[in-house]
Design a protein that fits this description.
The protein is α+β, with helices and mostly antiparallel strands. 27% of the residues lie in helices and 25% in strands.
Length: 113
């Protein structure tokens, strides 16, 4: 059964429906996502039909990505967000709340003030 193992239960306990987004942004990412490179987002674009696929490796990666978007919507004044793969010393880094593999397309979000 998909989603019923111990890993699923652990992730569910890290994802609360009561979300608090502080302005300082120190608590947006879970420790699990920060320390475990398995949590990531692969963005793929289908050139034929112009579909964009956001392929999250875990629910927790998607949850932290969503928290990052909420923080941007509430506190930021930039008008855009950019997500891209970034490797440093052989490790994939987190950019704006999400880690992306090198073969991922970049993702841009633009919004009006």
């Amino acid at each position: 059964m998909v989603g019923k193992g111990r890993g699923y239960q652990k992730m569910k306990s890290l994802m609360t429906p009561d979300i608090h987004i502080a302005e300082h942004a120190d608590d947006i990412l879970s420790d699990e996502v920060v320390t475990n490179e398995a949590h990531q987002l692969l963005v793929e674009v289908d050139a034929d039909n112009k579909d964009v696929y956001l392929n999250f490796s875990s629910r927790l990666a998607m949850y932290d990505f969503a928290r990052s978007l909420l923080h941007e919507a509430i506190y930021s004044k930039g008008g855009q967000m950019e997500f891209y793969p970034l490797e440093f010393q052989g490790k994939m880094e987190i950019v704006n709340g999400v880690r992306m593999p090198l073969n991922s397309a970049r993702l841009f979000i633009f919004y009006q003030e």
